[in-house]
């Protein structure tokens, strides 16, 4: 574990970031990427998920960049611990796609999304900005690929549970939730449902509140579990 020198507190107006990865070269690369952004400050870095809770309590970051595979406490377990905090930071999972049947666990725990480790630096930086504003960072195509990997195991029982939860929504909210599950942006949803973008944002906010979810990714997973998406989409 290491604290970046002179960066023990988030400067006013800057996005505070903690980086957790067991690969020192990856951490160095991420620190360099973040260091080039005037609105982002790396507060600390660690090589294992076991150090995350202490770092978050000490530095109160806005975003944690979290690797999945680490030797002592993996990123999935660390994400679950972080999201159980009273005021948790947003978690952005760092991964290689081959390992990502496991990333669903992180998304269900409340991670804001994931980044592939070969994502271009500018996109990683912009993803941190988006996550700090409460947005998820899964592209529609990758969202569907990930969600589709949940499919086979215990689907009937999970579908029943998901449908019971979605019954809390009114008709329009359910339409918006399904559109979120299809990976559509607010603008796309507004166009498809003949709504304004602010109205869509209000519906999404109501959906999250009614279902007790953290972000759009979890809405997408719930809609998929309920088997409300077209197989060919």
TrEMBL record:
GO terms (BP aspect): phosphorelay signal transduction system; regulation of DNA-templated transcription
InterPro entries xrefs: CheY-like_superfamily (IPR011006), NreC/VraR/RcsB-like_REC (IPR058245), Sig_transdc_resp-reg_C-effctor (IPR016032), Sig_transdc_resp-reg_receiver (IPR001789), Tscrpt_reg_LuxR_C (IPR000792), WalR-like (IPR039420)
Record has Transcription as a keyword: yes
Residues annotated as domain HTH luxR-type: 162-227
MF annotations from Gene Ontology: DNA binding
Annotated ranges, domain Response regulatory: 16-132
Keywords, alphabetical: DNA-binding, Phosphoprotein, Transcription, Transcription regulation
Residue(s) carrying 4-aspartylphosphate: 67
Keyword Transcription assigned: yes
Name of protein: DNA-binding response regulator
């Amino acid at each position: 574990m290491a604290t970046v020198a002179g960066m023990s507190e988030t400067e006013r107006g800057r996005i505070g970031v903690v980086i957790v990865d067991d690969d020192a070269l990856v951490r160095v690369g991420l620190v360099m990427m973040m260091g080039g952004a005037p609105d982002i400050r790396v507060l600390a870095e660690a090589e294992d998920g076991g150090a995350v809770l202490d770092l978050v309590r000490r530095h109160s970051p806005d975003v944690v960049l979290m690797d999945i595979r680490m030797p002592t406490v993996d990123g999935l377990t660390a994400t679950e611990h972080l999201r159980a905090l009273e005021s948790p930071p947003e978690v952005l999972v760092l991964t290689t796609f081959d390992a990502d049947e496991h990333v669903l666990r992180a998304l269900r725990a409340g991670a804001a999304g994931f980044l592939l480790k070969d994502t271009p630096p500018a996109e990683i930086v912009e993803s941190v900005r988006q996550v700090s504003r409460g947005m998820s960072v899964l592209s529609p195509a990758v969202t569907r690929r990930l969600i589709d990997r949940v499919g086979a195991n215990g689907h009937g029982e999970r579908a029943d549970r998901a449908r019971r939860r979605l019954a809390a929504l009114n008709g329009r909210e359910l339409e918006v939730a399904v559109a979120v599950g299809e990976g559509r942006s607010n603008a796309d949803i507004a166009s498809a449902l003949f709504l304004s973008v602010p109205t869509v944002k209000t519906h999404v906010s109501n959906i999250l509140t009614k279902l007790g979810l953290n972000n759009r990714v979890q809405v997408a997973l719930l809609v998929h579990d309920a088997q409300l998406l077209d197989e060919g989409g």
